[in-house]
Design goal:
Length: 95
């Protein structure tokens, strides 16, 4: 998971009422490797903007997609809009 997406998840957990330490602990319990957003991932996220802008995908959305593209893995999301886009990686809906 991109650190950008970890920030997004942690923030949403805190918005739901979890204190910082519990929110970060919940992320840690997932035992998912966290990947820094380097220049190469940033470039892919920027390149994805034209294909995603019309549907309102955020920077965090594009960071997730960029990591999926680089790793050759599907992007996991609950956002059904992603499945409608012509993206350079597969998209798997989680619900």
């Amino acid at each position: 998971m991109s650190l950008v997406n970890a920030i997004e998840v942690g923030t949403k957990l805190m918005d739901k009422g979890l204190p910082y330490d519990r929110a970060w602990e919940a992320l840690d319990l997932l035992d998912i490797p966290l990947v820094e957003l380097d220049a190469d991932l940033a470039a892919v996220a920027v390149a994805l903007r034209p294909a995603t802008r019309e549907r309102g995908l955020s920077l965090a959305d594009r960071a997730c997609l960029a990591l999926a593209v680089r790793e050759g893995l599907p992007a996991l999301t609950a956002d059904r809009i992603w499945a409608e886009l012509d993206l350079p990686c597969p998209v798997e809906l989680i619900r």
